[in-house]
Amino acid sequence: MTASIGRVVVLLGAPGAGKGTQAQILSEKLGLAHVATGDLFRAAVRDQTPLGVTAKGFMDRGELVPDAVTIEMLLERLAKPDAEAGILLDGFPRNTAQAEVLDKALGDKGGRVNVAPLIEVPEPELVSRLGGRWICRAQGHPYHLQGKPPKQAGICDVDGSELYQRDDDKPETVQARLRQQLGALEQVVGYYRDHGVLATVDGTTGIENVSKDLLAAIEPAIGSRS
Ligand code: AMP
Question: Which atom of ligand 1 has the smallest separation from the CA of 90?
Fold first, then answer.
C-alpha cells in the first residue's frame, strides 16, 4: 500500500446501472484514481496472466471471482502511487467480506470510505441495458446501442478502438449475473447504510443528471479538489 490514502468513494450499483460511465466522469472531475476491479480482471484475461486464467471461467459464467484472488489484486492496485490522492472504487466491494477487508486496509493507512453512492435502477431496465452494452477494446469505454451509441458504428469515440460485446453481457449470461449480483449488492448496500455513508441516487434520469446528483452527494463528504 501507499504510505497513506486520501479520499475514498465507493460507487455502488447493479451491473448495467451506469457505474462505469459515471466513474469515468466523476474520477476526472474529482481528481480520484478510478479503480475498477472488472477492468483489472479483463486486462489480466487479455494479457493471459495467471490471475487472468483463474478469473476467466468465473467471469464467463457471470459469477464473482473468489475473494482471495480479488482482494489480493485490489490491494496491489491500491499500492500504486496514484491511489494516494484518493480513489473511486467501481465494482469493489461486491460482498460484506470484501467491504470489511477494504475498511481494514484503509484504516491501516489512516483512511476510510468517505461516501458510498448507490446508483439505483429497476431490474427490468438493467436487463435491457446490459443486452445493448458494447465496450471498447482499448480501455473499456462503455456504449449502448440505444442509450449512448458511438458517433461511428463499432468505433470508440474516445480512442478509436473497436467496440465489442463482453461475453458476460450476452443474453444467456445476463440473467444469471444479475440474479447472483443483486443479492450480493444488497449486502453491501446494507453494510454502508449501517456505517452511515450510503447515499442513494436515481439512475434513470439521464447521464448528465445522474452525474450532477452523484457530485451533489459526494462533494460534501470529501471536500472539493482545491
Ligand atoms: P464488472 O465489470 O464490474 O461487471 O465485473 C466483471 C466481472 O469481473 C464480474 O462479473 C466478476 O466475475 C468479476 N469481478 C469484478 N469485480 C469483482 C469483485 N469485487 N469480486 C469478485 N468478482 C469481481
Answer: 3
Ligand 1 nearest-atom number relative to CA 39:
2
- CATH 3.10.20.30 is the classification of domain 7-121+189-222: no
Expressed in angstroms and rounded, the spacing between residue 179 Cα and the centre of ligand 1 is: 14
**pLDDT tens per residue across all 226 residues of the chain:** 455 778 999 999 998 899 999 999 999 999 999 999 999 999 999 999 999 999 999 998 878 899 999 999 999 999 999 999 899 999 999 999 999 999 999 998 888 999 999 999 998 888 888 888 899 999 999 998 888 899 999 999 999 999 999 887 877 778 877 887 898 899 999 999 999 999 999 999 999 999 999 999 999 999 754 3
Domain boundaries, the chain: 7-121+189-222
Residues classed as catalytic: 19, 94, 133, 166, 177
Where are the alpha helices (H) located in 47-122, listed in sequence order?
50-60, 67-78, 96-108
User: Is 83 exposed, middle or buried (CB count within 10 Å of its CB: 0-12, 13-18, 19+)?
Assistant: buried
